[in-house]
Amino acid sequence: KGVVDIVKEMGFPEKYKKVNPKKRLPILILDDGTIITETVAISTKISQMAPDHHLLGANDLEVVRSYEWFNWLSGTFHERGFGCFFGPHLVADDEIAFEPIRRKSRVWIERCYAEAEERLTGVHAVGDAFTAVDAFLYVIYRWGHMLRLDMKGAYPKYTNLVLEVTKRASVLKAVEKEGIPLIEDNRADVPNTQESE
Questions:
Q1: What is the DSSP secondary structure assignment for residue 150, as one 8-state letter?
Q2: What are the two backbone dihedrals, phi and then psi, of residue 37, each rounded to the nearest 5 degrees?
Q3: Are the C-beta atoms of residues 152 and 161 closer than 8 Å to each other?
Q4: Alpha carbon of 100 to those of 78, 81, 104, 151, 195: distances in Å?
Q5: Over its length of 197 residues, how does the chain's per-residue pLDDT go in tens digits?
Q6: What is the pTM of this model?
Q7: Distance between CA 41 and CA 91 in Å, rounded?
Q8: Using CA atoms, how far apart are residues 91 and 20, in angstroms rounded to an integer?
């Protein structure tokens, strides 16, 4: 129904707190008004709504592998990495700690990108076809550009997956609707946390 650009808003807009008191995106609102939050839950619901597309995988093991990726991406990579990088105030009250938290988070993020690169064996994360995991990996890949990481050079297998995802008409339509760059997203004013040489 609508798109909320949290980069422009610099966080969760207060006006949507009634929709999700956890103050987190994404949010899926079904036609009957039911609200579903959290990426994994939303991906599961969308997969249930379109079972012929096998968005969580084509067999039981692929579904398990999808949830394995989802848990790692949402907890380890997203929350522990980017959550701390963009929200150091969530883990420390003293502003003097913010920059060291961001530096440590950046190291963690780069470690996670390297781990994703190592885990990928084909153009899809799970099985031989597109799954919701590929979509989640695509979103997180784009965030690497906000940190000014050399995504193509450092993570070629990951880049190939993303290039495959961006061929999808649904992805192109979503990117156009959101008004965001397809891959190289440098919209955020990100603090420089790279060590000086």
A1: -
A2: -120, 170
A3: no
A4: 18, 13, 6, 23, 11
A5: 455 555 545 566 777 777 777 777 788 889 998 989 888 999 999 999 999 999 999 999 999 999 999 999 999 999 999 999 988 998 999 999 999 999 999 999 999 999 999 999 999 999 999 999 999 999 999 999 989 999 999 999 999 999 999 999 999 998 898 888 888 877 666 666 665 33
A6: 0.86
A7: 25
A8: 21
